[in-house]
Amino acid sequence: MYLKILPFNKTLFKKDFNQVKILIFIMTIILFFNVTLFVVSRYGSYIKVKNSFIEQNVKYDEKDLIKDCKEDIAWRLEDLGVQSALMIAVPIGLAAILFGEEKRKKTFEVLAVMPYTRYEIFFNKLIVALVSIALPFIINGIVMLLALGFISNLRMFYSMGQVIKWILHSIYCQLPILSFSILFGIITGNLISQLVLTGIFLIFPMGFSSLIAANLELWGIAQYLDLNTIYFTSFKFSPLGVFETIGQGVGYYFIYIAASIIMIIISKMLFDKSMWERNGELLQFENTEGFFKFGVTICTALLMVVVSTVFLQNYIYDFYITRFLVLILGYILGGILGYIGAHFSIKLNKSKA
């Protein structure tokens, strides 16, 4: 009974894990040099600065030195620089390897004739992906915790609670991005389209809302719109908005975790219905091609108008009729280019499949 609920398969898990282990290793090493080494070396830096002040006969407040070291560690653990880049790139890469690369190699077709159900295939890929986003942070967290145990003086700079919080926070931030990437790994039919469309739709809420606002402003319908406010408001509707939820309340955590679970459930349902004979095409499901063409047509039309007015702004604001014609021609030209581009990208990938 429990095997039916959780169809873990050692062979499938090992196969998928071997595909992504190099990515796990790279992420672990980057985190070690960017975070762990910085944290565990703070006591040495503290002693070095302290001795330097003593040798130069400079007055110092030891409490201030300790406070500075604690703040440096807290900043590094909470810094969204390199870590945020990893927490975006790695989940996308994992989904690309586990789904897009499998489609490129036609592995799904091979698995279809072997004694594995689709449930088993999807479940083990999901487990590997979850293990992969957690393992680098857990390994580095263990190193920091061991350093606390062996170097007691480090305890005045950071605590076990900070390290555990860092691990959980890092896993949480990756969940929506991983779920989103898996969803597009199933919707798309090949590796390139998966990477491109995942990247586009990650920023789609910000990009599309900004395009709409810019077009309304060009028509004079909504003057003096604050594009920055629109951008950051729409940012919350993207999986990337998870980075802005820290310290915003438990409610936000539940929203993004629930959204991640829902995307995984939808991914599982789509995976069960996916047509593996379409692997290699742009989109996995034929009935999404019309939506794709429509979306690309609309977005390209909106973008072409903005681009046109930027290049022709010195000529179109003197006469209302001139501006009107430029806007209309921009929509027509952008729509045609968008439709042609979407149509031929689908056709091209069909010929390669």
Automatic annotation (TrEMBL):
GO annotation, cellular component aspect: plasma membrane
Residues annotated as signal peptide: none
GO molecular function: ABC-type transporter activity
UniProt keywords, alphabetically: Membrane, Transmembrane, Transmembrane helix
Transmembrane parts of this sequence: 20-40, 80-100, 121-151, 163-188, 195-216, 250-271, 291-312, 324-346
Superkingdom to which the source organism belongs: Bacteria
PANTHER family: ABC TRANSPORTER PERMEASE YTRC-RELATED
Protein name: ABC-2 family transporter
Protein's organism: Keratinibaculum paraultunense
Upper classification of the organism: Bacteria, Bacillati, Bacillota, Tissierellia, Tissierellales
